[in-house]
Amino acid sequence: MIINEELFALEDQCQSLSDCIKKSETMKKYLKAKKVMEQSADVNLLINDFSIKKEQFEKVVPYQKYAPEFREKQRAVRLAKRQLDLHEKVADFRCMETQLQDLLDKISQQLAETVSLTIKIDAGNPFFEQKGRSGCGGNCHE
Questions:
Q1: What is the Cα–Cα distance from 118 to 72, expressed in whole angstroms?
Q2: Do 99 and 26 meet the contact criterion of CB atoms below 8 Å apart?
């Protein structure tokens, strides 16, 4: 790569885009939801409970069907995870996280299409539209 004024201009534009994303309403909502979730005593208790149950389950995983408490621990982990995921503050955070990821995916898609329509984008969302193009280059998803 040759370092010249064009490279510096691109770096400046990237920094400008990054600043715009950081100042966006989507980013503000994401950071607010994250802060609310992290400061919630209820959420922290659920996270600790899930972590403990996950560690207990991981200890018996190598023995699976030979460990008598395997199914019990597996169900306990799933229940703890479900309780955590369904907590209102965690759900709000995940929603904001998805919205931010969608914004980043759209920006990546627009940048790539500006350069070439044949560039494939690995979007963080498996449901992200690729305008008739599949990730493998085939046409089975059109």
A1: 50
A2: yes
What digits encode the pLDDT tens for the residues 6-31?
Answer: 889 989 999 999 999 999 999 999 99
Instruction: Say what the pTM is.
Output: 0.76
Whether residue 137 lies inside any domain: the answer is no
The CA distance from 73 to 86, in Å, is: 20
- Closest by CA to 104, choosing from 119, 124, 118, is 124
Q: Summarize the confidence of residues 97-108 as an average pLDDT.
A: 94
- Judge whether 32 and 91 are in contact, CB under 8 Å: no
Digit-coded pLDDT (tens) for 24-73 = 999 999 999 999 999 999 999 999 999 999 999 999 999 987 888 999 99
Domain of residue 42, residue span: 24-114
11 domain residue, yes or no: no
Alpha-carbon gap, residue 132 to 118, rounded angstroms: 11
Number of structural domains (the chain) is 1
Token pair 């599949």 in the structure block, residue:
134
Write the CB contacts of 98 (distance below 8 Å, at least 6 apart in sequence): 125
